[in-house]
TrEMBL record:
<dbReference type="Pfam" id="PF00107">
    <property type="entry name" value="ADH_zinc_N"/>
</dbReference>
<keyword id="KW-0560">Oxidoreductase</keyword>
<dbReference type="InterPro" id="IPR020843">
    <property type="entry name" value="ER"/>
</dbReference>
<comment type="subunit">
    <text>Homodimer.</text>
</comment>
<dbReference type="InterPro" id="IPR047109">
    <property type="entry name" value="CAD-like"/>
</dbReference>
<keyword id="KW-0479">Metal-binding</keyword>
<protein>
    <recommendedName>
        <fullName>Enoyl reductase (ER) domain-containing protein</fullName>
    </recommendedName>
</protein>
<comment type="similarity">
    <text>Belongs to the zinc-containing alcohol dehydrogenase family.</text>
</comment>
<dbReference type="InterPro" id="IPR011032">
    <property type="entry name" value="GroES-like_sf"/>
</dbReference>
<feature type="domain" description="Enoyl reductase (ER)">
    <location>
        <begin position="18"/>
        <end position="352"/>
    </location>
</feature>
<dbReference type="Pfam" id="PF08240">
    <property type="entry name" value="ADH_N"/>
</dbReference>
<keyword id="KW-0862">Zinc</keyword>
<dbReference type="InterPro" id="IPR013149">
    <property type="entry name" value="ADH-like_C"/>
</dbReference>
<dbReference type="InterPro" id="IPR013154">
    <property type="entry name" value="ADH-like_N"/>
</dbReference>
<dbReference type="InterPro" id="IPR002328">
    <property type="entry name" value="ADH_Zn_CS"/>
</dbReference>
<dbReference type="InterPro" id="IPR036291">
    <property type="entry name" value="NAD(P)-bd_dom_sf"/>
</dbReference>
């Protein structure tokens, strides 16, 4: 039986999909499941374009199931709720991020760390509980289990809040892990000033830290400081600047998805400092042992965040009025946006106006 023709899949949806590794996005009509007892149906308003979308449409990681409907930075309005759903109602402003399903039984699911469940399934290119392939937010509606849905604070605009569902929680989670959310006054470094990096700078400043941006692009210094509020800027290709920055930072968030060595970045950390990796280079990264050993430093990874953390992140962003800097596009501009994203030609996140509500 074709995946999209299950008997329970009766809702016809208009979306946008890639059908092969050319990565070209074209209109795509498909079916979604009926709204189950634990589900909510969501009219999609906006969907951010994440670098992961680019990897999946091009099958860069060799795991894409075509056709793929990308999108895991989704904001919208609830149009229907299942009979078991008590925490949402029709008309609520909500968001859906990377997670669609998990086992609900393991230690991680039971401790609000379901993003580390070994049966985690994603919002697109995953396998849902009913055995069907998940389709993401490049579509006009979505059906989601209510346990994987969060509220969007009323004061946050739906378009600029959309990328928080992936980019936002991806940097918030390691910040919380490193005690940066509640304990101000640390020296924090952010490597890379893209979709993830620009949100990390905003959050770290809101949480009361001294923020240093580390970038290969000297041209980004003005915007890092004046637009985003960074305190310092280090050009990572400038040996003198890197030398001056040695042993000055408590925590560094590395958001870069391109190949690079961690050695010089580790040297910027104080003794006992932590380097948190959230970018995902497709080849192994270089990790020399001496900067680790001689500085008693740690390197750790972090993968998105739990639903509890995602809601906490959204609430914190509402409190501090943190949003992403976005460039709105229409659905027929997705392919051009992908081309520009591949060249890092965006400040700082493309967001698709799915419902056509904004004047573009």
């Amino acid at each position: 039986m074709a995946l999209e023709s299950r008997p329970s899949h009766t809702q016809t949806v208009a979306g946008w999909a890639a059908h092969d590794s050319s990565g070209k996005i074209v209109p795509f009509i498909f079916k979604r499941r009926e709204t189950g007892v634990n589900d909510v149906s969501i009219k999609v308003m906006y969907c951010g374009i994440c670098h992961t979308d680019l990897h999946f449409v091009n099958n860069d990681w060799g795991i894409t199931m075509y056709p793929v409907v990308p999108g895991h930075e989704i904001t919208g309005v609830i149009t229907k709720v299942g009979s078991n759903v008590k925490n949402f109602k029709v008309g609520d402003r909500v968001g859906v991020g990377c997670l669609a399903a998990s086992c609900l039984e393991c230690e991680f699911c039971k401790n609000s760390q379901e993003n580390y469940c070994d049966q985690i399934q994603f919002t697109y290119n995953g396998i849902f509980w009913d055995g069907t392939v998940t389709y993401g937010g490049y579509s006009d509606m979505l059906v989601a289990d209510h346990r994987y849905v969060v509220r969007v604070p009323d004061n946050l605009p739906m378009d600029a809040a959309a990328p928080l569902l992936c980019a936002g929680v991806t940097v918030f989670s390691p910040m919380k892990d490193c005690q940066l959310v509640e304990s101000p006054g640390k020296k924090v470094g952010v490597v890379g000033l893209g979709g993830l990096g620009h949100v990390a700078v905003k959050m770290a400043k809101a949480f009361g830290h001294h923020v240093t941006v580390i970038s290969t692009s000297p041209s980004k210094e003005t915007e890092a400081k004046q637009r985003l509020g960074a305190d310092s800027f280090i050009v990572s290709t400038d040996d003198e600047q890197m030398q001056r920055g040695k042993r000055t930072l408590d925590v560094v968030l590395d958001t870069v998805s391109a190949q690079h060595s961690l050695g010089p970045i580790l040297e910027l950390l104080k003794v006992n400092g932590t380097l948190a990796l959230v970018g995902a280079p497709d080849r192994p990264i270089e990790l020399p042992s001496f900067p680790l050993i001689f500085g008693k430093r740690s390197v750790k990874g972090s993968m998105t965040g739990s639903m509890k953390e995602t809601q906490e992140m959204m609430d914190v962003c509402g409190k501090h009025n943190i949003t992403c800097d976005v460039e709105l596009i229409k659905p027929d501009q997705i392919n051009q946006a992908f081309d520009r994203l591949a060249r890092n030609d965006v400040r700082y996140r493309f967001v698709i106006d799915i419902a056509g509500n904004s004047k573009l």
